[in-house]
Amino acid sequence: MSTVTTNLDDDDARRLPELAVWARGVRRSALQEMLTEILRPGVLSFALGLPAVELFPSAAYGEAVARVLEEDPRALQYGPPSRALKRHVVGLMERRGVECREEQVFITSGAQQGLSLVARLLLDEGSEVLTEELTYTGFLQAVEPFSPKLLTVPTDLETGIDTDAVERLLRGGARPRLIYTVPDGHNPLGVSVSREKRAHLVELARRYGVPIVEDDPYGLLSYDGPPAAPMRALDERWVFYVGSFSKILAPAVRAGWVVAPEELMPHLSIIKEASDIDTATLSQRAVARYLEDDPLDEHLTTLRREYGRRRDLLVGALRKHFPEDSRWSVPSNGVFVWAELAGGVDTQELLGRSVREEGIAFLPGGAFSADGMARATNCMRLNFSHTPPDRIEDGIARLGRLVCDASKG
Ligand SMILES: Cc1ncc(COP(=O)(O)O)c(C=O)c1O
User: Fold this and answer.
1) What are phi and psi of 256, to 5 degrees?
2) Does 283 score more than 60 pLDDT?
3) Does a cis peptide bond (omega within 30 degrees of 0) precede residue 188?
4) 233 vs 96: CA distance, rounded Å
5) Distance, CA 115 to ligand 1 centroid (Å)?
6) CA distance 98 to 86
7) What are the tens digits of pLDDT across the range 94-122?
8) φ, ψ for residue 286, nearest 5 deg
9) Ligand 1 pocket mutation pick from 48, 132, 136 by most atoms within 8 angstroms of CB
10) What digits encode the pLDDT tens for the residues 168-191?
11) Is the CB of 256 under 6 A from ligand 1?
């Protein structure tokens, strides 16, 4: 019997394999840095986009899982995408005002995976990508392996993406491989864009041959009547629609979808297979079964009522407890309010104090800067879906005291 002896000194033992170029540049994001503090026990968090635990339809979903396991021996097997689930997605899209066919629906393990798959489909190393100056950080993570050149356009608390700035860039010769935006309940701004802007963006996509990636996890969470139809309703070739069950059912089902041109389904299938083979069969079938008995109408009504109430409580508390020179969005969709404080307040600094002294967490605006420029350093994103209604006012009152204090200094 031979023995292998390794004789590594400490330095050798600590060496890492050579990383891909893009991975060498990876640092913990500002957001990850903050998570340890934010997630400390006892901290009242307005920071993350979490749904309310007490509103998950756990019993109905549990029954759906049990029935699928009982009746379907293949529920724990590898399996093709669920036709039944695709049928339900077509129905959900119809509620959003979009006509599509099952053949255009691609099932994913959540919207985040939808973004990653579409990025792999459309991007080469160093491709140009267009997004707003303040954008969803998960999108940036999805495109990062391609070391993209980011083109950014301004975005506004009340009107959203500046489509005239998009037009100027395209007219000036820029040809990004995709335009990314969240048209309803924007993350992080909370804004929903007008019908006119949607039509303008679609017209630009067609004219310049640049696809739009329309990320829509919040379209069905609407509080002031139905929102405008998604851009996918206006064009079926230049809009890739990304949907999700995370916010309307539960994030842990890890199920979402992409609506894309039918010809591209084989491409998406290959990319997905390389990523995770398939969306968990049990999850797909259980979500389909849950939807079969049609409880979603009632569930969405509950979510809209409850989250709408929490939004009103949070906005009411801001009115009462934040300085008069602050402004904020009153979102008609989604789970976020964005607050802008007087110029001199640094919300990154404020977060440290807020967690330590008051046990309150939020996300500083700078965490959402698409290109790493110092932006929105006087802004904060506040989530209203997760905090129980009876704790919202007190939480915002405590945060407001610190904000007033910082505004004076
Ligand atoms: C704008 C946006 N896109 C995508 C996602 C990811 O959603 P999912 O849980 O479906 O992957 C989120 C989650 O918060 C989001 O806010």
Assistant:
1) -155, -165
2) yes
3) yes
4) 9
5) 9
6) 14
7) 999 999 999 999 999 999 999 999 999 99
8) -70, -40
9) 136
10) 999 999 999 999 999 999 999 999
11) yes
